[in-house]
DNA sequence: CGTACTCCTTCAAGTAACTTGAAGTTCAAG
DNA sequence: CTTGAACTTCAAGTTACTTGAAGGAGTACG
C-alpha cells in the first residue's frame, strides 16, 4: 500500500515503541540494533524496519527475556530456517524461571505480611518500648516476630 | 553464661551467616559493617556483636529490603528510642511493592504460558514453516501468538 | 625448621541493563 | 535570525555484588 518509506528521528522511534532514546542508543551500542544511518547533520534516522525490529525487542523485554535471549530470538526471527520449536524451548525455560521466582515471591509476601501484622498487633499507636524485632532479626533462627513478647 | 568472647575469622563469620566473604568486605566498604579490627598479621577478626549485626543484615536482605532500607533498619535497631511503628511502615511499603511485583509476574506467567501453549499446538514436532510469531512480535499490538494462523 | 595448604589480603574490573549528567550541535518554528 | 526542543558524544552512576590476579598469614605435618 504505502510505497514511500517513513523516516523517523530517534525521538519519534522512542515514542512509537516506548523505548527511551538513551536506551535506543544503548541498544545500538551493544549491537541489538544496527548502526543507524545519519542525516547530513549527523542525527540518526530510522525506517519501518527499525520500528519493527525495536518493537520486537521491546515485546521480548516486556516478556522478561534477557538481552542475550533477545539476541537469540532476533537471530531466529531473521534466519530463513527459523525454528519455532527452539523459540518455544527458550520461552519454556523462561516460564519455568518465572514460576520459580513467583513461588519465592509468594513466600516472601506471606512472611512480610505476618511481619507487618505482628507489628500492628503489638505496637500500633506508638513507639514500642518492648519491641524485640531487632533481637529476633539478629538471631540466626527463621525470621519472625516484630514486636512480640 | 559464656563470658569469653568468641573470635571469628571472616571465613567463619561467612559460614555462620551465609554471607560470602567478598560480600562481608563489601559491606564493610559501604559502611554496613564497622571496619573490623585486625590481627597482628592484618586479617579481620569478628566477635558476637558482628555476628548479630550481620545476621540482622542477612535477614533483612532475605526479606528483600534494599541496602539503604537495611541501613535505616540498622539505625532503628541501635537507636535508644527505637520506633517499631517506623519499622512497620518501612515493611508495609516494601510489602506493597512486593505485591505489585507479584501481580506483574502473575500476568507475565499467564502471557508466557499462552505463548508456549500456542507454540506447542501449532508447531510441536518440527520447524514451523508458517510460524508468524516474529511478525506478531514486531507488531505494536498486544503480544500474542507464536505459531497461529 | 621447612613446606604444603588453606584462608586471608588488596585492588581492579566485570555483571545487567540501563540512567543521568555535562557540554555542545542541529533542526523546525516564528 | 533567534529561540528552544531535540539531537550528539562521552563519562560516570546505579544495585549489589562477583570474579580475578597476585601475593601474605595461619596452621598442620614431618
TrEMBL record, chains A, B:
Keywords, ordered alphabetically: DNA-binding, Transcription, Transcription regulation
All residue ranges annotated as the HTH merR-type domain in the record: 7-76
SMART domains linked to this entry: HTH_MERR
Transmembrane stretches, start-end: none
PANTHER family: HEAVY METAL-DEPENDENT TRANSCRIPTIONAL REGULATOR HI_0293-RELATED, REDOX-CYCLING DRUG-SENSING TRANSCRIPTIONAL ACTIVATOR SOXR
Protein name: Helix-turn-helix domain-containing protein
Amino acid at each position: 500500500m504505502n510505497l514511500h518509506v517513513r523516516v523517523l528521528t530517534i525521538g519519534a522511534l522512542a515514542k512509537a515503541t516506548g523505548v527511551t532514546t538513551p536506551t535506543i542508543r544503548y541498544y545500538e551500542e551493544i549491537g541489538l540494533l544496527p548502526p543507524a544511518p545519519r542525516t547530513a547533520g549527523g542525527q540518526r534516522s530510522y525506517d519501518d524496519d527499525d520500528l519493527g525490529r525495536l518493537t520486537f525487542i521491546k515485546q521480548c523485554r516486556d516478556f522478561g527475556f534477557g538481552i542475550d535471549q533477545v539476541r537469540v530470538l532476533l537471530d531466529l526471527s531473521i534466519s530463513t530456517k527459523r525454528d519455532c520449536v527452539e523459540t518455544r524451548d527458550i520461552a519454556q525455560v523462561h516460564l519455568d524461571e518465572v514460576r520459580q521466582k513467583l513461588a519465592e515471591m509468594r513466600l516472601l509476601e506471606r512472611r512480610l505480611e505476618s511481619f507487618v501484622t505482628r507489628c500492628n498487633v503489638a505496637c500500633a499507636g506508638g513507639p514500642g518500648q518492648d519491641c524485640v524485632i531487632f533481637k529476633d532479626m539478629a538471631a540466626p533462627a527463621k525470621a519472625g516476630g516484630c514486636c512480640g513478647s
